[in-house]
Specification:
The protein is of the alpha/beta class. It has five helices and six strands. It has a single domain, classed as Nucleotidyltransferase, domain 5.
Length: 187
């Protein structure tokens, strides 16, 4: 007799913040991860890594542990931005690359909407998401990227706020049938 067990689906919502680090050729900076926030779909807990506050290797390892546990990962523009930058950061830190993973990207998997902005902030407002976008002015970003005490707080608030807002946004978009088929991201 064959026994089939159902695996619990766990979706990991995440976001990163990053800053330019160096120029590898004219007008093309490299990136450094300054923050990661992540939260599973079945909890309100949000976990973080913040550059300048937390141990980098430990923060990355904690994120990889959650990433590996996830059935799928989700975020806004993660296949073309977040996952690529994270993978480079993992390699630079001497860690293994991220594994291939099913992704739900609320920018790239969104149904075509004509001439409308596809930013997380715009979509959240358009579809009535209650969680706010934490705004950062250019001066705030400069402070955050300099890793000052107040800058670290701003970075934390921004990255956590993006995950909280995105969790709600993804649910709304999915319930309205506005997201296409999830796709596998491979490093």
């Amino acid at each position: 007799m064959i026994t089939i067990t159902k695996r619990k689906v766990r979706i990991l919502d995440f976001d990163i913040e990053n800053r330019p680090l160096s120029y590898w050729y004219s007008d093309r900076p490299t990136a450094e991860v300054t923050a990661i926030a992540w939260s599973f779909n079945d909890t309100d807990d949000v976990h973080t890594y913040i550059l300048g506050r937390d141990d980098t290797r430990n923060g990355f390892e904690r994120f990889i542990e959650a990433y590996d546990e996830a059935t799928a990962v989700t975020g806004h523009y993660i296949r073309k931005h977040d996952l690529r930058i994270l993978n480079g950061a993992m390699l630079e830190e001497g860690l293994r690359p991220l594994s291939s993973k099913l992704t739900i990207d609320t920018k790239l998997d969104l149904v075509t909407q004509g001439d409308l902005p596809a930013t997380q902030e715009h979509l959240a407002e358009m579809y009535g998401v209650g969680a706010p976008k934490i705004h950062m002015t250019q001066m705030m970003w400069r402070e955050a990227n300099r890793l000052t005490r107040e800058g670290l707080k701003k970075t934390y608030d921004r990255v956590v706020g993006d995950v909280v807002q995105h969790k709600e946004l993804r649910t709304v978009l999915a319930n309205k049938g506005l997201l296409g088929t999830p796709r596998v991201w491979s490093p």
